[in-house]
Amino acid sequence: MLDHASVSPDSSGFPDHPHRGQETISYILSGKLKHEDFAGNSGILTAGSLQFMTAGRGIMHSEMSLPADDGTASEGLQLWVDLPKEKKMCEPRYRDLTSSEIQEVSADAGRVKVRVISGVSNGVQSRQDLTYTPIWYLDFTVKPGGTVKQLLPQGWNAFAYVMAGEVLISGSQHAVKQFDLVTLEEDGDGFEASVLAHYGTEARFILVAGQPLDQPVVQHGPFVMTSRAEIVQAVSDFRMRENGFERAATWTSRAMKGR
């Protein structure tokens, strides 16, 4: 699941809520995100940075947006990545990635810029072990006349999501426009896309690829498991404050307390 959210300065964001069974990747495009959880983790993510959170057996946390310095809305992407069945009940963990830690590389005579968040692009490799489920996450900005040529692990699931402008993907007759998402064929090992010169404006899109897990996906609200019975158990554990949710019984975020 991919969520593209724009939160106005007078909005509270996403107050105290639980998760189990998945990893979330939060990418801050503008503004700031203040996070805290019942394990004592807290911090503020700024524009250009990411947080990789493994919910595992259970986490209760708060994600509250803070406006940019000029008062404009906070904007970000959150990607949910399924955990392998054997990792569903692992302990929660975090991996923060600051903007300065993300390497950028140029291609096609400077017409293409890539932020290598996770994976490999044009000879640049990202930090490792960000998620239990192997994924690639690349952020492209392409000027008119520019073409992206990107290798991908063969057999992985992959998609592209356009945040600005429009992109012509190889093999397609029509441009992919802003806020559209396209899935790619699994039998290929590469991706090619262009911003034609007559489009007149640069485009920005993310390219995400992940290793297929070949397991059922059963989702209910903030819980992602592999069977209905596991979902029922997750809901029961959260309500009873058991099996990973014990600390939820006495925890309230500072944001909810009004501090």
TrEMBL record:
Its cofactor is Fe cation. Residues 1-21 are annotated as: Disordered. InterPro entries: Pirin, Pirin_C_dom, Pirin_N_dom, RmlC-like_jellyroll, RmlC_Cupin_sf. Fe cation binds at residues 17, 19, 61, 63. Binds 1 Fe cation per subunit. Keywords: Iron, Metal-binding. Residues 137-243 form the Pirin C-terminal domain. GO terms for molecular function: metal ion binding. Residues 11-81 form the Pirin N-terminal domain. Pfam families: Pirin, Pirin_C. SUPFAM superfamilies: RmlC-like cupins (SSF51182). Belongs to the pirin family. This is RNA pol II transcription cofactor. It comes from Didymosphaeria variabile.
